[in-house]
Amino acid sequence: MNFDLRYPIGIMFSVFGAMLVIFGLASETKLYERSLGINVNLWWGLVLLVFGATMFLMARRAGRAAKESAARPVPTPAAKNGR
Amino acid sequence: MQSIQLGGIDYAILIIYFVFVIGIGWALKRYMKGSTDFFLSGRSIPAWVTGLAFLSANLGAQEVIGMAASGAKYGIMTCHFYWLGAIPAMVFLAIFMMPFYYGSRARSVPEYLKLRFDEKTRGFNAMSFAVMTVFSSGISLHALAKLMEMLLGWDYNACIAVSAIIVLIYIFLGGLTSAIYNEVLQFFMIVLGFTPLVYLALRDAGGWTVLKEKLVTVATNHPDKFAAGTWSESWAHMQNTAANPMGVEWFGMVMGLGFVLSFGYWCTDFLVVQRAMAANSMSAARRTPLIAAIPKMLFPLLVILPGIVAMGLHFSGQNSSFRIPVEPKHIVEKLAAERLNIPYDTIKDLKPVQKDALDAEGKKIAEELKQTQPDSTLVAAARTTQTQLQMRYDKLDYNMVIPALLQHYLPMGLLGLCLTALMASFMSGMAGNVTAFNTVWTYDIYQSYFAPNKSDHHYLWMGRMATIFGILLSVGAAYLASRFNNIMDMLQLVFGFVNAPLFATFLLGMFWRRATGHGAFWGLLSGTGWAAIFHGLALSKGAAAGIKGGWLAQMLGLQTIPIPFRSEMAQNFWMAIVAWTSCFVLTILISLATRRNKTDNELKGLVYSLTPRPKSENEPWYKQPVTVGVLVLGATLILNIIFW
Fold first, then answer.
1. pLDDT digits (tens, 9 = 90+) for B148-203
2. B12 contact A CB<8A
3. Containing domain of residue A57, as a range?
4. How many domains does chain A have?
5. Residue A80 lies in a domain
6. B5: part of which helix (H) or strand (E)?
7. Residue A12 falls within a domain, yes or no?
8. Among A9, B227, B615, B621, which is most buried by a count of CB atoms within 10 Å?
9. How far from each other are the two terminal CA atoms of chain B, in whole angstroms?
10. With an 8 Å Cβ cutoff, is A22 touching chain B?
11. How far is the CA of B549 from the CAs of B132, B256, B378, B532, in angstroms?
12. Tens digit of pLDDT for each residue in B12-36?
């Protein structure tokens, strides 16, 4: 099967991260009284963004490696595993 | 508890998540060409995905909510459900049992039983498993709808309908692969949604060292006067049943939970084993439980620690405003007692007539509370009662620990993320059961008893149909659960009887070639029977005879319970030990008395001594099951020593 799960994971968490960062920047500080005065939306949004981007890039790298080895006549183990 | 207000961003996160869930099902649709694609994912999934799904399939929201509840109620001893009750069994599955499941021609766990023993053993296991999955999935669905109704004020029926439809769509389209992929998505949602919550709660408590001091008060103020470290030390208070809030001693814990229940679940339950069977190679299948074991080891941080922290915060007086809510039924009961002028502390000893009057009054008050304005005197009285009962350990609603933490610490935005994670795990708990059900139904029941020798295309169609009626049955089970709580308790009890002895059958089947079909079947049945008899003779402190046990003693007219326990948990652990032992002994005896029904040749690939060992010497060390297994066990041991 050539469907890499890291794509949807990467995209979804990047979207969530971006949403939380923007919301964190736009919202008032009063909202963060309950979270001990920390703007958790902003900070955690950044974490999600980094996580999402990493997943996405890993999937893309694996996809490229698979394409390159598929072009060669004999498939290498990388072509079998990197989907 | 007041209901939680969600903002636009929270709804947006929720909706986007479900778009991705259904989108994954849609994207997988074109890969579903035959029944193996639908039921076994065409055995083509990489190990990291099956590993995380293996972990996630078990990590329903009931687990998240329940583990936090136990963390609050019993402290760090709850970690034994992970370190003792999961990791060793997962390593055993990877090293010793996976070669048989993956290497044999079996497509399901019941089918392994048929190949190894005979048709009747498989039939018994397949039927009980199919019924059990439908009800578990129904219970997940019911719990989700009930929680959402209470937290967000959503409509119960609408919640049931929407969740059932979402699960139906993505399994119908993408089969097991879809369920597995969504379980992985859910794994990341839980980890990334709960980490900030745990961080905030722990920070508010002042960190682990300060929290430990607070937990001393929790333990010493308990009506049972526990030793100071009871909530923060996992092994030190297990010398006898009176020394810890679980009411369990070390032998019952190690044998009951650590051996019988744990190996019985992780090594034989098709729901989890199916994930490993979908892996793309023998090596990946064996690594699946090991990859799952690494996060499993650390999961107490996410699911048990919040409960422990909540308990510390709850009992730290003015230092924190966080409180675990009191169970609503106790509030109503106390209000009713006040109205009827009955002293609250005597209601345990009331005569049946008075008890009925109290219950009727309670029902009336509950109705009034629903209808009155938020500023009415009744609501104010309920609030006062809540505060009065808050210091009493047995009145707290431990299942509300996670929702209460969510509401207290998370602002709009993160709140949506965390709630979505909770909903996601309820749904994937349901989906996991549905995929296991449709496989066992199609291969082990439909194909073997109703319609053998049909085309593969026909079985794929049947799998899709089984998905539909499996979900319809789950919806029915959910409504059954909402109407008759007792039926659900009863069913879970019966499943407990059936499951407890199962690991003895597998152990003998895999490691003793002399075990026969008759031995397995009758051993299993008598193990189940002994479990039921034991349950009928045992009862935990303070419980009434009936569904909690003791019914047989009552029927026989015995004045005292022959096997008393301090807690229900200890009773369960010992019931498992009895069931396992009787199944083990009887299977051996009956096997020796009956003739073998399978030749050595037929048992090749099914029994340890007749199967060539899978080779993994050419793989790097981190891909060798034995090496990784030993490392995982070593790390778990270190965790146990740190938190001894």
1. 888 888 999 999 999 999 999 999 998 999 999 999 999 999 999 999 999 999 99
2. yes
3. 6-74
4. 1
5. no
6. none
7. yes
8. A9
9. 36
10. no
11. 21, 17, 38, 9
12. 999 999 999 999 999 998 888 888 8
